[in-house]
Amino acid sequence: MPPVVNPSGMGYDKGMTVMETRAVQIERESRNLNAFQHRADVISHLIVNTELPWVDIAIAIDQLREEGRRLFPQKMELFELIYPRRFERLWQQWREAA
Asked: What is the pLDDT of residues 65-85, one digit of tens each?
């Protein structure tokens, strides 16, 4: 069976199959997720390995939150469950304990 091609041609490059379009979407989502995770890792690094004050860390967290809202608006509840607690826990373990 040949690949399904969008008959209207709208929203697709000529000759691009629906499957190829989905692959492009998955690749873009993967790049966005990797970049987002890298930014979260940078914040973790700033907490653990620098003397940056909490106010600056909080600004970085807010920027990450806004990036998450832009890239993954349907996942913001998950963001709030994971990332703020992660950063607060790191702060308590590495800064307040020191």
From this structure: 999 999 999 999 999 999 999
pTM (predicted TM-score): 0.76
The angle subtended at Cα 54 by Cα 72 and Cα 39, nearest 5°, is 30
Question: What gap in Å lies between CA 88 and CA 98, rounded to an integer?
Answer: 15
Cβ partners under 8 Å of residue 64, min gap 6? 36, 39, 40, 43, 83
Which tens digits make up the pLDDT trace of 29-53?
999 999 999 999 999 999 999 999 9
In angstroms, the CA 13 to CA 60 distance is 38
Distance CA 69, CA 75 (A): 8
CA distance 73 to 32: 13
Q: Which residues of 63-91 are buried (b: 16+ CB within 10 A; e: fewer)?
A: ebeebbeeeeeeeeeebeeebeeebeebb
